[in-house]
Write a structure and sequence with these properties.
Length: 495
């Protein structure tokens, strides 16, 4: 029962030609592994750098691994990262559908085509799926590999369950080329007759990726190096179909340390975890871009790249085959740099939810508080603990008023507060300038260093040794009434 050639011809006719086309093909797992984010980024950059097309394909044929809502995580992450796709399940495109389970009808026909071409065979052996996947299946023993066409037809007619396996030649070698790993040659006898089509009629990844990449006109296949060992089998499939082999870009794993890959199961953070830990998407992307890729020439020393700059600079020749180690401290450095480079308004916007975790009093201006923090935090999650003194003055120790460098002790502090309170109370307008000038003038009048006056004022206002911002800023945010209340409380404590 040969498939009508028109079926294949129609699909072939839909394939766009002449432009770079890349795809990110995640399986919906419910989170974005850092390595996958990097794959997505490189794949997107290759397309954008070349003015090509970037495709999102959802690989959901592994029904066991399905996670509720996981596809939404993919869309959300891609959108948040600015890795916009030109074709995909939600936006459509010429070679859809873009969700593998919606392509189910296709794979069986291509598997049958391969059987006709002699590059695959029906296998009726009763094996569990895990046995089939384990690669322990010894094809030389498989009676199905040499089953006559009549016997196959009879089994099919009898409704016997089957899988379709790739028929790997016993002899010879297969060579494939990868952009970073170069030419790799393997003996065919080391390759297994892998399952292409499972008993449930769904394809294995090993088959679906080849059929889909071809039918979607993918020119560059970017994926993790765990697929390198299967690449010779993919080449044999492309060759059997008579299809052009895409450019392979296999990326080495992102490691936790010298010996271990990063893994969510072992507690390493996913992209979503990093966001939750207070890292900015832009900083994560920038850092991840450099995990396994390095700019060349004039840009060789540059570290900070916007997404647009990456589009210009990205070149697949810069992808390294050595595994990269994920260093949270380095990411933190990138994050701090990004936070500092933001406009004050943009920073205030991302900081506000974190400020409001600690500062609930709406009278205290989040934008103004943000101004104190921008240069003083590395991650957004650093923010709340720095602000715990705004809503309520913490209980603090008298000894906080003693500071050698500012030349204050408890007696001097009391004196300073006694002078500061009326000076501040007399201010007609509660502006930072007015508070600043009043205190600086007072210090001059008293013949003391500014710090000798500012130290006790800040301690009394905040009840903390370390605060973001100085006395003036903190008093301004607290407002006149609350400032005076706190300064008086400090005096009472010192008396
Ligand atoms: N669905 C595969 C994965 O998530 C994609 C591999 C590929 O890009 O070909 O690992």
């Amino acid at each position: 029962m040969a498939v009508d050639p028109a079926f294949f011809a129609e699909l072939e006719a839909r394939i766009p030609k002449g432009k770079v086309r890349t795809r990110f093909a995640p399986s919906p797992t419910g989170y974005t592994h850092v390595g996958n984010l990097r794959t997505a980024l490189y794949t997107w950059l290759i397309a954008r750098h070349a003015g090509g097309t970037f495709i999102l394909r959802i690989e959901d044929t592994d029904q066991v691994r399905q996670v509720e809502g996981a596809t939404d995580v993919i869309y959300r992450t891609m959108a948040e990262c600015g890795l916009t796709h030109d074709e995909g399940p939600d936006v459509g495109g010429p070679v859809g559908p873009y969700i593998q389970t919606e392509r189910q009808g296709l794979y069986g026909k291509f598997a049958e085509l391969l059987v006709e071409k002699g590059a695959a065979y029906y296998c009726f052996c009763e094996k569990t799926e895990s046995e089939e996947d384990s690669g322990e299946f010894d094809r030389s023993d498989d009676p199905c590999r040499s089953m006559s066409a009549e016997e196959v037809a009879a089994n099919l007619a009898a409704g016997k369950p089957y899988v379709i396996r790739q028929r790997i030649p016993h002899e010879g070698t297969t060579t494939f080329h990868d952009v970073s790993f170069g030419d790799i040659t393997v003996e065919n006898k080391t390759l297994d007759d892998q399952v292409l089509l499972k008993r449930d009629g769904l394809p294995t990844y090993n088959f679906a990726n080849v059929v889909d990449d071809h039918l979607m006109g993918i020119t560059h296949v970017v994926r993790g190096s765990e697929y390198l060992s299967s690449a010779p089998k993919y080449n044999l499939l492309y060759e059997a179909f008579g299809w052009e082999i895409p450019t392979y870009v296999h990326c080495s794993p992102v490691m936790r340390d010298q010996h271990n890959k990063m893994s969510k199961r072992h507690g390493d953070p996913s992209y979503e975890d990093l966001r939750e830990q207070g890292y900015l998407t832009e900083a994560i992307l920038n850092y991840v871009a450099l995990l396994g890729w390095a700019p060349k020439g004039d840009l060789g020393e540059q570290e900070i790249f916007s997404l647009n700059e990456l589009v210009d600079a990205f070149d697949i020749a810069g992808i390294s085959k050595s595994p990269a180690i994920f260093d949270l401290e380095k990411l933190t450095y990138f994050n701090a740099t990004y936070l500092r480079r933001m406009t004050p308004d943009a920073f205030a916007k991302v900081a506000e939810p974190y400020i409001r975790q600690a500062v609930k009093n709406p009278a205290y201006d989040a934008g103004e508080i943000a101004g104190l923090l921008q240069a003083r935090c590395e991650k957004l999650t650093d923010i709340p603990e720095k602000l715990d003194f705004f809503d309520a003055l913490p209980a603090y120790d008298k000894s906080f008023f003693v500071n050698k460098k500012s030349k204050t002790d408890e007696t001097i502090s009391l004196e300073m507060l006694e002078k500061a309170v009326p000076a501040l109370e007399a201010l007609p307008a509660w502006t930072t300038e007015a508070i600043h000038d009043a205190l600086v003038n007072l210090a001059a009048e008293l013949g003391v260093k500014n710090a000798t006056l500012m130290w006790p004022v800040r301690i009394a206002a905040a009840g903390k040794l370390v605060t973001p911002g100085g006395a003036v800023e903190i008093c301004h945010i607290l407002g006149k009434e609350e400032t005076l209340r706190r300064l008086r409380a400090g005096m009472a404590m010192l008396k």
